[in-house]
Specification:
Order of helices and strands: EEEHEEEEEEEE
CATH superfamily: Pleckstrin-homology domain (PH domain)/Phosphotyrosine-binding domain (PTB)
Structural class: mainly beta
Radius of gyration: 16 Å
Strand content: 35-45%
Helix content: under 10%
CATH architecture: Roll
Number of domains: 1
Largest sheet: 8 strands, antiparallel
Number of helices: 1
Shape: globular
Distance between the termini: 6 Å
CATH class: Mainly Beta
């Protein structure tokens, strides 16, 4: 398993990449400016805004998922590109193909599905196929690859660097 950690304004954000078969909802992929899509502030009351199990974003109760989806429909400008799925994480990456790189907003949704959108023209540009054969590879603190059966996606974090820990 590869664990990707990122320090953003002294807040640690952690995401997991794994090659085991996915369950729905599934582990998330980390990338630049990754933000929990309208994550609620921590609450001392266990009944309100509570995540189940270990507190991961993908472990939402049905009620919390419904609330977040309603909020996403109202306020997230990228909702129209995700075919009604809840956006778990989103962030800007540069996607390099050949000599050129293009800035894209990546949207990780339930399923899991990974869409990318041109943020300037608000056009869905594609989707990275996500299944058990997907394999991440970290090159350095800003560059990583996503290997799929038919293609290798070369992704660059345009912001601060990510901190990577490799675990067996």
């Amino acid at each position: 398993m590869i664990r990707v950690k990122r320090l953003v304004h002294s807040t640690k954000i952690e995401f997991n990449l794994s090659r085991r078969p996915f369950q729905s909802p599934s582990p998330t992929l980390g990338f630049n400016s990754l933000q929990d899509s309208k994550a609620p502030p921590p609450s001392s009351s266990p009944a309100s805004n509570r995540l189940t199990r270990r507190g991961h974003i993908v472990d939402l109760t049905d009620e919390e998922r419904r609330k977040r989806l309603d909020e996403q429909i109202r306020s997230n400008r990228y909702h129209r590109f995700v075919e009604g799925n809840l956006i778990l994480k989103q962030g800007i990456l540069d996607k390099k193909k050949g000599l050129w790189s293009r800035r894209r907003m990546f949207l990780l949704t339930e399923g899991p599905r990974l869409f990318y959108v041109d943020p300037d023209h608000m056009v869905l540009k594609g989707e990275i196929p996500w299944d058990e054969s997907i394999r991440p590879e970290i090159r350095d603190f800003k560059i990583f690859f996503v290997h799929t059966p038919n293609r290798v996606y070369y992704l660059i974090d345009p912001g601060l660097y990510i901190r990577c820990d490799l675990h067996p």
